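Consortium newsletter contribution from the modelling node. Members have asked for a concrete example of what our holo predictions look like. Here is one, prepared for the xanthosine-5'-monophosphate complex that several groups have been discussing at recent meetings.
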Amino acid sequence: MTQHDRLLIIDFGSQVTQLIARRLRELNVYCEIHPFNRVDEKFLASFAPRAVIFSGGPASVYAEGAPMPPKGVFDLGVPILGICYGQQVMMHCLGGKVEGGHGTAEFGRAFVTPTAERLPLLDGWFAEGDEQVWMSHGDHVSRIAPGFSVFGTSPNAPFAVTADPARRFFAVQFHPEVHHTPHGAKLYENFVRLAGFKGDWTMGAYRDEAIARIRDQVGGQKVICGLSGGVDSSVAAVLIHEAIGDQLTCVFVDHGLLRQGEAEQVVTMFRDTYNIPLIHADESDLFLSALEGVSDPEVKRKTIGKLFIDVFQKHATAVGGAKFLAQGTLYPDVIESVSFSGGPSVTIKSHHNVGGLPEKMGLKLVEPLRELFKDEVRALGRELGLPEPFIRRHPFPGPGLAIRCPGEITREKLAILRQADAVYIDQIRKHGLYDDIWQAFAAILPMKTVGVMGDGRTYDYALALRAVTSVDGMTADYYPFTHNFLGETATRIINEVRGVNRVFYDCTSKPPGTIELE
Ligand code: XMP
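And here is the predicted structure:
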Protein backbone atom coordinates (compact mmCIF):
# COMPACT_ATOMS: atom_id res chain seq x y z
CA MET A 1 0.00 0.00 0.00
CA THR A 2 1.26 3.40 -0.93
CA GLN A 3 1.98 6.06 1.69
CA HIS A 4 0.60 8.88 -0.44
CA ASP A 5 -2.67 10.64 0.10
CA ARG A 6 -5.24 8.50 -1.64
CA LEU A 7 -8.32 9.25 -3.62
CA LEU A 8 -11.03 6.61 -3.90
CA ILE A 9 -13.01 6.27 -7.12
CA ILE A 10 -16.20 4.30 -6.54
CA ASP A 11 -17.15 2.64 -9.81
CA PHE A 12 -20.82 2.46 -10.72
CA GLY A 13 -20.08 0.80 -14.05
CA SER A 14 -19.30 3.66 -16.42
CA GLN A 15 -17.39 2.83 -19.59
CA VAL A 16 -15.02 5.69 -18.85
CA THR A 17 -14.19 5.21 -15.17
CA GLN A 18 -10.57 4.46 -16.03
CA LEU A 19 -10.29 7.88 -17.62
CA ILE A 20 -11.06 9.51 -14.26
CA ALA A 21 -8.07 7.68 -12.82
CA ARG A 22 -5.92 8.76 -15.79
CA ARG A 23 -6.80 12.44 -15.26
CA LEU A 24 -5.94 12.18 -11.57
CA ARG A 25 -2.68 10.36 -12.10
CA GLU A 26 -1.71 13.11 -14.55
CA LEU A 27 -2.11 15.47 -11.61
CA ASN A 28 0.30 13.30 -9.57
CA VAL A 29 -2.56 12.16 -7.35
CA TYR A 30 -2.67 8.54 -6.26
CA CYS A 31 -6.10 6.97 -6.77
CA GLU A 32 -7.69 3.56 -6.91
CA ILE A 33 -10.90 2.37 -8.58
CA HIS A 34 -13.13 0.04 -6.60
CA PRO A 35 -16.58 -1.26 -7.58
CA PHE A 36 -19.48 0.07 -5.49
CA ASN A 37 -20.33 -3.43 -4.27
CA ARG A 38 -16.83 -4.04 -2.90
CA VAL A 39 -16.55 -1.02 -0.64
CA ASP A 40 -18.11 -0.93 2.79
CA GLU A 41 -17.54 1.05 5.95
CA LYS A 42 -14.62 -1.15 6.98
CA PHE A 43 -13.00 -0.68 3.61
CA LEU A 44 -13.49 3.09 3.80
CA ALA A 45 -11.83 3.16 7.20
CA SER A 46 -8.79 1.20 6.06
CA PHE A 47 -8.45 3.00 2.73
CA ALA A 48 -8.80 6.38 4.46
CA PRO A 49 -9.34 8.44 1.31
CA ARG A 50 -8.58 12.15 1.27
CA ALA A 51 -11.39 12.51 -1.28
CA VAL A 52 -13.93 10.33 -3.07
CA ILE A 53 -15.29 10.36 -6.62
CA PHE A 54 -18.50 8.60 -7.67
CA SER A 55 -18.22 7.49 -11.30
CA GLY A 56 -21.01 7.46 -13.84
CA GLY A 57 -22.93 4.29 -14.60
CA PRO A 58 -25.72 2.84 -16.72
CA ALA A 59 -28.32 2.26 -13.96
CA SER A 60 -31.29 4.31 -12.77
CA VAL A 61 -31.24 5.27 -9.11
CA TYR A 62 -34.88 4.35 -8.70
CA ALA A 63 -34.55 0.92 -10.35
CA GLU A 64 -34.70 -2.09 -8.08
CA GLY A 65 -31.27 -3.02 -6.78
CA ALA A 66 -29.72 0.17 -8.14
CA PRO A 67 -26.06 0.54 -7.18
CA MET A 68 -25.63 2.67 -4.07
CA PRO A 69 -22.59 4.21 -2.41
CA PRO A 70 -21.33 2.61 0.81
CA LYS A 71 -22.87 3.56 4.11
CA GLY A 72 -20.93 6.21 5.93
CA VAL A 73 -19.27 7.70 2.86
CA PHE A 74 -21.03 11.04 3.38
CA ASP A 75 -19.87 11.13 7.00
CA LEU A 76 -16.17 10.78 6.25
CA GLY A 77 -15.80 14.55 6.21
CA VAL A 78 -13.87 14.43 2.91
CA PRO A 79 -14.76 16.11 -0.39
CA ILE A 80 -16.91 14.04 -2.77
CA LEU A 81 -17.38 14.58 -6.48
CA GLY A 82 -20.28 12.83 -8.21
CA ILE A 83 -20.27 12.42 -11.98
CA CYS A 84 -23.42 11.72 -14.02
CA TYR A 85 -24.93 8.68 -12.26
CA GLY A 86 -22.64 9.70 -9.40
CA GLN A 87 -24.49 13.02 -9.23
CA GLN A 88 -27.88 11.35 -9.36
CA VAL A 89 -27.06 8.85 -6.65
CA MET A 90 -25.67 11.61 -4.45
CA MET A 91 -28.87 13.64 -4.79
CA HIS A 92 -30.98 10.54 -4.23
CA CYS A 93 -29.10 9.65 -1.02
CA LEU A 94 -29.03 13.20 0.35
CA GLY A 95 -32.69 14.06 -0.15
CA GLY A 96 -32.98 15.30 -3.75
CA LYS A 97 -34.97 13.77 -6.58
CA VAL A 98 -34.07 12.04 -9.84
CA GLU A 99 -36.41 11.41 -12.74
CA GLY A 100 -36.33 9.66 -16.07
CA GLY A 101 -38.80 10.35 -18.76
CA HIS A 102 -39.35 11.89 -22.08
CA GLY A 103 -37.37 14.64 -23.66
CA THR A 104 -34.78 14.92 -20.93
CA ALA A 105 -32.14 12.48 -22.09
CA GLU A 106 -29.03 14.16 -23.34
CA PHE A 107 -26.23 12.51 -25.26
CA GLY A 108 -23.24 14.25 -26.68
CA ARG A 109 -22.01 17.81 -26.73
CA ALA A 110 -23.68 20.44 -24.55
CA PHE A 111 -22.73 23.85 -23.20
CA VAL A 112 -22.73 24.83 -19.56
CA THR A 113 -23.58 28.39 -18.54
CA PRO A 114 -22.41 29.63 -15.13
CA THR A 115 -24.84 31.02 -12.61
CA ALA A 116 -24.13 34.28 -10.84
CA GLU A 117 -22.37 32.66 -7.91
CA ARG A 118 -18.84 31.29 -8.53
CA LEU A 119 -17.64 27.90 -7.34
CA PRO A 120 -13.93 27.18 -6.71
CA LEU A 121 -14.44 23.82 -8.45
CA LEU A 122 -14.97 25.79 -11.65
CA ASP A 123 -11.95 28.11 -11.31
CA GLY A 124 -10.52 28.79 -14.75
CA TRP A 125 -13.79 27.92 -16.49
CA PHE A 126 -15.97 30.29 -18.52
CA ALA A 127 -13.03 32.55 -19.45
CA GLU A 128 -14.24 32.42 -23.04
CA GLY A 129 -17.96 32.02 -22.41
CA ASP A 130 -19.96 28.82 -21.97
CA GLU A 131 -17.98 25.61 -21.50
CA GLN A 132 -18.36 22.64 -23.79
CA VAL A 133 -19.05 19.42 -21.90
CA TRP A 134 -19.98 15.84 -22.76
CA MET A 135 -23.34 14.59 -21.55
CA SER A 136 -24.54 11.02 -21.58
CA HIS A 137 -27.60 10.54 -19.43
CA GLY A 138 -31.16 9.25 -19.62
CA ASP A 139 -32.27 10.30 -16.14
CA HIS A 140 -31.73 13.71 -14.65
CA VAL A 141 -31.85 15.41 -11.28
CA SER A 142 -35.21 17.17 -10.88
CA ARG A 143 -34.71 18.49 -7.37
CA ILE A 144 -31.39 19.06 -5.70
CA ALA A 145 -30.70 17.92 -2.17
CA PRO A 146 -30.94 20.29 0.81
CA GLY A 147 -27.75 22.31 1.24
CA PHE A 148 -26.93 22.21 -2.47
CA SER A 149 -27.00 25.12 -4.91
CA VAL A 150 -26.73 25.30 -8.68
CA PHE A 151 -23.55 26.69 -10.21
CA GLY A 152 -23.98 25.76 -13.86
CA THR A 153 -26.82 24.89 -16.19
CA SER A 154 -27.20 23.47 -19.68
CA PRO A 155 -30.29 23.47 -21.89
CA ASN A 156 -31.32 19.94 -20.87
CA ALA A 157 -29.67 19.80 -17.47
CA PRO A 158 -30.76 22.68 -15.26
CA PHE A 159 -28.57 21.16 -12.55
CA ALA A 160 -25.45 20.59 -14.66
CA VAL A 161 -23.17 21.69 -11.79
CA THR A 162 -24.36 21.53 -8.20
CA ALA A 163 -22.52 21.74 -4.92
CA ASP A 164 -22.81 22.00 -1.20
CA PRO A 165 -19.62 24.05 -0.66
CA ALA A 166 -19.78 23.83 3.12
CA ARG A 167 -19.56 20.03 3.07
CA ARG A 168 -17.35 20.08 -0.07
CA PHE A 169 -19.81 17.87 -1.97
CA PHE A 170 -19.79 18.52 -5.71
CA ALA A 171 -21.92 16.91 -8.38
CA VAL A 172 -21.94 17.33 -12.15
CA GLN A 173 -24.23 15.84 -14.73
CA PHE A 174 -21.58 15.70 -17.49
CA HIS A 175 -18.35 13.73 -17.85
CA PRO A 176 -15.33 15.96 -17.18
CA GLU A 177 -12.92 13.03 -17.75
CA VAL A 178 -13.55 12.64 -21.47
CA HIS A 179 -11.76 14.37 -24.27
CA HIS A 180 -14.99 16.05 -25.42
CA THR A 181 -15.09 18.11 -22.23
CA PRO A 182 -12.03 20.15 -23.29
CA HIS A 183 -11.45 21.79 -19.91
CA GLY A 184 -12.49 18.81 -17.80
CA ALA A 185 -8.95 18.31 -16.48
CA LYS A 186 -9.15 21.75 -14.86
CA LEU A 187 -12.16 20.63 -12.88
CA TYR A 188 -10.23 17.65 -11.49
CA GLU A 189 -7.29 19.91 -10.76
CA ASN A 190 -9.54 22.21 -8.75
CA PHE A 191 -11.15 19.28 -6.95
CA VAL A 192 -7.86 17.78 -5.77
CA ARG A 193 -6.58 21.22 -4.76
CA LEU A 194 -9.72 21.77 -2.67
CA ALA A 195 -9.15 18.35 -1.11
CA GLY A 196 -5.58 19.29 -0.18
CA PHE A 197 -3.64 16.78 -2.28
CA LYS A 198 0.06 17.58 -2.51
CA GLY A 199 0.58 16.08 -5.99
CA ASP A 200 3.46 13.93 -4.74
CA TRP A 201 2.71 10.81 -6.76
CA THR A 202 5.80 10.96 -9.00
CA MET A 203 7.77 8.17 -10.58
CA GLY A 204 10.92 9.18 -8.70
CA ALA A 205 9.16 8.74 -5.38
CA TYR A 206 7.43 5.59 -6.59
CA ARG A 207 10.73 4.02 -7.58
CA ASP A 208 12.18 4.39 -4.07
CA GLU A 209 9.02 3.14 -2.38
CA ALA A 210 8.70 0.18 -4.76
CA ILE A 211 12.30 -0.83 -4.09
CA ALA A 212 11.72 -0.72 -0.34
CA ARG A 213 8.54 -2.79 -0.71
CA ILE A 214 10.24 -5.42 -2.89
CA ARG A 215 13.08 -5.80 -0.34
CA ASP A 216 10.55 -6.10 2.41
CA GLN A 217 8.51 -8.72 0.58
CA VAL A 218 11.36 -10.84 -0.74
CA GLY A 219 13.91 -10.69 2.08
CA GLY A 220 16.87 -12.90 1.19
CA GLN A 221 14.93 -15.23 -1.14
CA LYS A 222 15.44 -15.83 -4.85
CA VAL A 223 13.12 -14.44 -7.51
CA ILE A 224 12.65 -15.46 -11.11
CA CYS A 225 11.18 -13.21 -13.78
CA GLY A 226 9.93 -14.15 -17.23
CA LEU A 227 11.23 -11.57 -19.67
CA SER A 228 9.39 -11.06 -22.91
CA GLY A 229 11.42 -8.09 -24.08
CA GLY A 230 8.33 -5.90 -23.80
CA VAL A 231 8.38 -2.76 -21.72
CA ASP A 232 6.37 -4.11 -18.76
CA SER A 233 8.47 -7.15 -17.94
CA SER A 234 11.68 -5.20 -18.70
CA VAL A 235 10.80 -2.39 -16.29
CA ALA A 236 9.74 -4.90 -13.63
CA ALA A 237 13.02 -6.78 -14.02
CA VAL A 238 15.21 -3.68 -13.81
CA LEU A 239 13.33 -2.37 -10.78
CA ILE A 240 13.55 -5.69 -8.96
CA HIS A 241 17.22 -6.00 -9.85
CA GLU A 242 17.81 -2.58 -8.32
CA ALA A 243 16.10 -3.78 -5.18
CA ILE A 244 17.65 -7.22 -4.71
CA GLY A 245 20.53 -7.53 -7.20
CA ASP A 246 21.58 -11.07 -8.01
CA GLN A 247 18.79 -12.68 -6.03
CA LEU A 248 16.90 -12.12 -9.31
CA THR A 249 17.30 -14.34 -12.38
CA CYS A 250 15.46 -13.53 -15.59
CA VAL A 251 14.36 -16.16 -18.08
CA PHE A 252 13.97 -15.14 -21.70
CA VAL A 253 12.26 -17.88 -23.70
CA ASP A 254 12.98 -17.87 -27.42
CA HIS A 255 10.09 -19.86 -28.85
CA GLY A 256 11.22 -19.43 -32.43
CA LEU A 257 8.36 -16.99 -32.98
CA LEU A 258 10.26 -13.77 -32.33
CA ARG A 259 10.90 -10.94 -34.75
CA GLN A 260 14.12 -10.30 -36.62
CA GLY A 261 17.03 -9.66 -34.24
CA GLU A 262 14.74 -9.61 -31.20
CA ALA A 263 16.44 -12.25 -29.05
CA GLU A 264 19.88 -10.65 -29.55
CA GLN A 265 18.57 -7.18 -28.70
CA VAL A 266 16.90 -8.28 -25.48
CA VAL A 267 19.72 -10.48 -24.30
CA THR A 268 22.39 -7.88 -25.07
CA MET A 269 20.54 -5.14 -23.25
CA PHE A 270 19.99 -7.16 -20.11
CA ARG A 271 23.43 -8.69 -19.97
CA ASP A 272 25.51 -5.69 -21.07
CA THR A 273 23.58 -2.66 -19.89
CA TYR A 274 22.22 -4.04 -16.66
CA ASN A 275 24.35 -7.02 -15.89
CA ILE A 276 21.20 -8.85 -14.80
CA PRO A 277 21.58 -12.63 -14.56
CA LEU A 278 19.67 -13.94 -17.56
CA ILE A 279 18.92 -17.40 -18.89
CA HIS A 280 18.46 -17.27 -22.66
CA ALA A 281 16.39 -20.37 -23.28
CA ASP A 282 16.47 -21.23 -26.97
CA GLU A 283 13.50 -23.54 -27.17
CA SER A 284 12.54 -22.87 -30.77
CA ASP A 285 12.73 -26.52 -31.85
CA LEU A 286 10.44 -27.55 -29.01
CA PHE A 287 7.78 -24.96 -29.83
CA LEU A 288 7.95 -25.22 -33.61
CA SER A 289 7.73 -28.99 -33.66
CA ALA A 290 4.75 -28.93 -31.29
CA LEU A 291 3.05 -26.46 -33.61
CA GLU A 292 3.64 -28.49 -36.75
CA GLY A 293 0.37 -29.10 -38.55
CA VAL A 294 -1.61 -26.92 -36.09
CA SER A 295 -3.79 -24.34 -37.76
CA ASP A 296 -6.55 -23.66 -35.24
CA PRO A 297 -5.85 -20.34 -33.44
CA GLU A 298 -6.98 -21.55 -30.01
CA VAL A 299 -4.99 -24.78 -30.25
CA LYS A 300 -1.94 -22.69 -31.19
CA ARG A 301 -2.37 -20.40 -28.22
CA LYS A 302 -2.94 -23.23 -25.77
CA THR A 303 0.01 -25.25 -27.10
CA ILE A 304 2.29 -22.24 -26.71
CA GLY A 305 0.94 -21.37 -23.26
CA LYS A 306 1.52 -24.89 -21.96
CA LEU A 307 5.05 -25.11 -23.36
CA PHE A 308 5.91 -21.76 -21.80
CA ILE A 309 4.98 -23.16 -18.41
CA ASP A 310 7.03 -26.34 -18.97
CA VAL A 311 10.09 -24.40 -20.06
CA PHE A 312 9.76 -21.89 -17.30
CA GLN A 313 9.43 -24.59 -14.71
CA LYS A 314 12.52 -26.37 -16.02
CA HIS A 315 14.65 -23.24 -15.75
CA ALA A 316 13.18 -22.08 -12.46
CA THR A 317 14.22 -25.36 -10.88
CA ALA A 318 17.69 -24.89 -12.30
CA VAL A 319 18.01 -21.52 -10.56
CA GLY A 320 17.72 -23.36 -7.26
CA GLY A 321 14.91 -22.69 -4.87
CA ALA A 322 13.24 -19.51 -6.15
CA LYS A 323 10.35 -18.61 -3.86
CA PHE A 324 8.95 -15.74 -5.92
CA LEU A 325 7.85 -15.14 -9.47
CA ALA A 326 7.97 -11.58 -10.80
CA GLN A 327 5.40 -10.37 -13.31
CA GLY A 328 4.85 -7.07 -15.08
CA THR A 329 1.11 -6.97 -14.26
CA LEU A 330 -0.35 -3.47 -14.75
CA TYR A 331 -3.18 -1.66 -13.00
CA PRO A 332 -5.72 -2.07 -15.84
CA ASP A 333 -5.32 -5.86 -15.46
CA VAL A 334 -6.06 -5.59 -11.76
CA ILE A 335 -9.09 -3.30 -11.79
CA GLU A 336 -12.21 -5.27 -11.14
CA SER A 337 -14.92 -4.03 -13.41
CA VAL A 338 -18.59 -3.99 -12.55
CA SER A 339 -20.66 -6.34 -14.65
CA PHE A 340 -24.33 -5.45 -14.82
CA SER A 341 -25.16 -8.40 -17.03
CA GLY A 342 -23.72 -10.67 -14.38
CA GLY A 343 -22.78 -13.39 -16.86
CA PRO A 344 -19.27 -14.54 -17.69
CA SER A 345 -17.75 -12.77 -20.66
CA VAL A 346 -17.07 -14.68 -23.84
CA THR A 347 -13.50 -15.78 -24.45
CA ILE A 348 -12.42 -14.15 -27.69
CA LYS A 349 -8.84 -15.35 -27.43
CA SER A 350 -6.97 -17.33 -24.80
CA HIS A 351 -4.27 -14.82 -23.95
CA HIS A 352 -1.00 -16.33 -23.03
CA ASN A 353 0.19 -15.34 -19.61
CA VAL A 354 1.74 -17.14 -16.68
CA GLY A 355 -1.56 -17.38 -14.78
CA GLY A 356 -1.77 -20.66 -12.90
CA LEU A 357 1.97 -21.03 -12.86
CA PRO A 358 2.68 -19.60 -9.41
CA GLU A 359 0.38 -22.02 -7.56
CA LYS A 360 1.60 -24.96 -9.56
CA MET A 361 5.19 -24.16 -8.70
CA GLY A 362 4.46 -23.04 -5.15
CA LEU A 363 5.65 -19.51 -5.90
CA LYS A 364 4.48 -16.18 -4.53
CA LEU A 365 4.01 -13.26 -6.90
CA VAL A 366 6.04 -10.07 -7.00
CA GLU A 367 4.15 -7.50 -9.07
CA PRO A 368 5.79 -4.12 -8.60
CA LEU A 369 3.83 -2.45 -11.42
CA ARG A 370 0.34 -3.44 -10.38
CA GLU A 371 -0.52 0.12 -9.36
CA LEU A 372 0.62 1.68 -12.63
CA PHE A 373 -0.85 2.51 -16.01
CA LYS A 374 1.16 1.84 -19.17
CA ASP A 375 2.39 5.40 -19.58
CA GLU A 376 3.45 5.46 -15.92
CA VAL A 377 5.44 2.27 -16.54
CA ARG A 378 7.14 4.05 -19.42
CA ALA A 379 7.92 7.02 -17.14
CA LEU A 380 9.33 4.63 -14.55
CA GLY A 381 11.42 2.96 -17.26
CA ARG A 382 12.92 6.35 -18.10
CA GLU A 383 13.58 6.97 -14.43
CA LEU A 384 15.44 3.62 -14.34
CA GLY A 385 17.47 4.55 -17.43
CA LEU A 386 16.04 2.01 -19.85
CA PRO A 387 17.01 2.89 -23.43
CA GLU A 388 14.35 5.02 -25.11
CA PRO A 389 13.74 2.63 -28.06
CA PHE A 390 12.91 -0.07 -25.52
CA ILE A 391 10.50 2.13 -23.67
CA ARG A 392 8.64 3.18 -26.79
CA ARG A 393 8.45 -0.30 -28.29
CA HIS A 394 5.10 -1.40 -29.64
CA PRO A 395 3.50 -4.23 -27.65
CA PHE A 396 4.35 -7.73 -28.86
CA PRO A 397 2.09 -10.66 -27.95
CA GLY A 398 3.32 -13.66 -25.94
CA PRO A 399 2.52 -16.16 -28.75
CA GLY A 400 4.60 -13.97 -31.07
CA LEU A 401 4.54 -14.52 -34.81
CA ALA A 402 2.36 -17.63 -34.42
CA ILE A 403 -0.75 -15.45 -34.36
CA ARG A 404 0.50 -13.39 -37.31
CA CYS A 405 0.70 -16.50 -39.43
CA PRO A 406 -2.94 -17.62 -39.78
CA GLY A 407 -3.21 -21.29 -40.64
CA GLU A 408 -0.29 -23.63 -40.42
CA ILE A 409 3.06 -22.30 -39.27
CA THR A 410 6.17 -23.28 -41.21
CA ARG A 411 9.76 -22.16 -40.84
CA GLU A 412 9.63 -20.88 -44.44
CA LYS A 413 6.63 -18.67 -43.69
CA LEU A 414 8.21 -17.41 -40.48
CA ALA A 415 11.40 -16.44 -42.32
CA ILE A 416 9.43 -14.50 -44.94
CA LEU A 417 7.31 -12.85 -42.27
CA ARG A 418 10.35 -11.75 -40.23
CA GLN A 419 11.95 -10.08 -43.21
CA ALA A 420 8.78 -8.40 -44.41
CA ASP A 421 7.95 -7.16 -40.92
CA ALA A 422 11.44 -5.67 -40.59
CA VAL A 423 11.04 -3.77 -43.89
CA TYR A 424 7.60 -2.50 -42.84
CA ILE A 425 8.79 -1.28 -39.44
CA ASP A 426 11.84 0.30 -41.09
CA GLN A 427 9.49 2.19 -43.42
CA ILE A 428 7.41 3.38 -40.47
CA ARG A 429 10.50 4.58 -38.63
CA LYS A 430 11.92 6.29 -41.72
CA HIS A 431 8.68 8.21 -42.13
CA GLY A 432 8.74 9.23 -38.46
CA LEU A 433 5.44 7.45 -37.72
CA TYR A 434 6.52 4.85 -35.15
CA ASP A 435 5.49 6.83 -32.09
CA ASP A 436 2.11 7.83 -33.56
CA ILE A 437 1.14 4.19 -33.90
CA TRP A 438 0.13 1.92 -31.02
CA GLN A 439 1.15 -1.25 -32.82
CA ALA A 440 2.21 -2.18 -36.34
CA PHE A 441 3.16 -5.52 -37.85
CA ALA A 442 3.01 -7.68 -40.93
CA ALA A 443 1.09 -10.96 -41.12
CA ILE A 444 1.57 -13.67 -43.70
CA LEU A 445 -1.70 -14.90 -45.18
CA PRO A 446 -2.50 -18.57 -45.69
CA MET A 447 -2.65 -18.27 -49.47
CA LYS A 448 -0.54 -17.86 -52.53
CA THR A 449 -1.47 -15.66 -55.43
CA VAL A 450 -0.26 -15.23 -58.98
CA GLY A 451 1.91 -12.31 -60.01
CA VAL A 452 4.30 -11.29 -62.72
CA MET A 453 7.85 -10.15 -62.02
CA GLY A 454 10.32 -9.37 -64.78
CA ASP A 455 9.08 -11.59 -67.56
CA GLY A 456 8.07 -14.45 -65.35
CA ARG A 457 5.04 -15.71 -63.52
CA THR A 458 5.21 -15.81 -59.74
CA TYR A 459 3.09 -17.81 -57.34
CA ASP A 460 3.95 -16.48 -53.91
CA TYR A 461 2.56 -15.53 -50.50
CA ALA A 462 0.35 -12.54 -49.84
CA LEU A 463 0.99 -10.33 -46.80
CA ALA A 464 -1.31 -8.18 -44.73
CA LEU A 465 0.04 -5.04 -43.07
CA ARG A 466 -1.63 -3.85 -39.90
CA ALA A 467 -1.18 -0.61 -37.97
CA VAL A 468 -3.52 0.70 -35.30
CA THR A 469 -3.96 3.57 -32.92
CA SER A 470 -5.28 2.74 -29.48
CA VAL A 471 -5.12 3.79 -25.85
CA ASP A 472 -5.15 0.40 -24.17
CA GLY A 473 -5.50 -2.23 -26.90
CA MET A 474 -9.15 -2.79 -25.95
CA THR A 475 -10.44 -0.78 -28.88
CA ALA A 476 -8.43 0.37 -31.86
CA ASP A 477 -8.67 2.15 -35.15
CA TYR A 478 -6.60 1.44 -38.23
CA TYR A 479 -3.84 3.95 -38.92
CA PRO A 480 -4.54 6.21 -41.92
CA PHE A 481 -1.28 5.90 -43.88
CA THR A 482 -1.07 7.90 -47.07
CA HIS A 483 -1.41 6.03 -50.36
CA ASN A 484 2.17 7.03 -51.14
CA PHE A 485 3.42 5.40 -47.98
CA LEU A 486 1.46 2.22 -48.65
CA GLY A 487 2.58 2.05 -52.29
CA GLU A 488 6.22 2.62 -51.40
CA THR A 489 6.09 0.01 -48.61
CA ALA A 490 4.43 -2.63 -50.80
CA THR A 491 7.05 -2.06 -53.49
CA ARG A 492 9.91 -2.32 -51.01
CA ILE A 493 8.57 -5.53 -49.47
CA ILE A 494 8.03 -7.22 -52.82
CA ASN A 495 11.46 -6.14 -54.06
CA GLU A 496 13.35 -7.03 -50.93
CA VAL A 497 11.60 -10.14 -49.62
CA ARG A 498 11.63 -13.28 -51.75
CA GLY A 499 8.46 -15.28 -51.56
CA VAL A 500 5.99 -12.35 -51.43
CA ASN A 501 4.22 -10.99 -54.49
CA ARG A 502 1.21 -9.18 -53.03
CA VAL A 503 0.61 -6.83 -50.10
CA PHE A 504 -2.71 -5.81 -48.52
CA TYR A 505 -3.40 -3.14 -45.92
CA ASP A 506 -5.90 -4.04 -43.18
CA CYS A 507 -8.44 -1.22 -42.65
CA THR A 508 -10.46 -2.94 -39.92
CA SER A 509 -10.97 -1.26 -36.58
CA LYS A 510 -11.46 -3.12 -33.29
CA PRO A 511 -14.27 -3.97 -32.86
CA PRO A 512 -15.28 -5.63 -35.14
CA GLY A 513 -11.76 -6.89 -35.84
CA THR A 514 -9.12 -7.64 -33.24
CA ILE A 515 -5.61 -6.23 -33.43
CA GLU A 516 -3.86 -9.51 -34.07
CA LEU A 517 -5.19 -11.76 -36.85
CA GLU A 518 -5.70 -14.74 -34.53
P1 XMP B 1 -6.21 -8.42 -29.77
O1 XMP B 1 -5.66 -9.20 -30.91
O2 XMP B 1 -6.91 -9.26 -28.74
O3 XMP B 1 -4.93 -7.81 -29.02
O4 XMP B 1 -7.03 -7.25 -30.23
C1 XMP B 1 -4.96 -6.78 -28.09
C2 XMP B 1 -3.53 -6.53 -27.62
O5 XMP B 1 -3.07 -7.67 -26.89
C3 XMP B 1 -1.94 -8.24 -27.53
N1 XMP B 1 -2.09 -9.68 -27.42
C4 XMP B 1 -1.44 -10.43 -26.53
N2 XMP B 1 -0.51 -10.11 -25.61
N3 XMP B 1 -0.37 -12.36 -24.98
C5 XMP B 1 0.04 -11.09 -24.85
O6 XMP B 1 0.94 -10.83 -24.05
C6 XMP B 1 -1.30 -12.76 -25.86
O7 XMP B 1 -1.65 -13.92 -25.94
C7 XMP B 1 -1.85 -11.74 -26.69
N4 XMP B 1 -2.78 -11.75 -27.69
C8 XMP B 1 -2.91 -10.47 -28.11
C9 XMP B 1 -1.97 -7.73 -28.95
O8 XMP B 1 -0.67 -7.75 -29.54
C10 XMP B 1 -2.53 -6.35 -28.76
O9 XMP B 1 -1.54 -5.45 -28.33
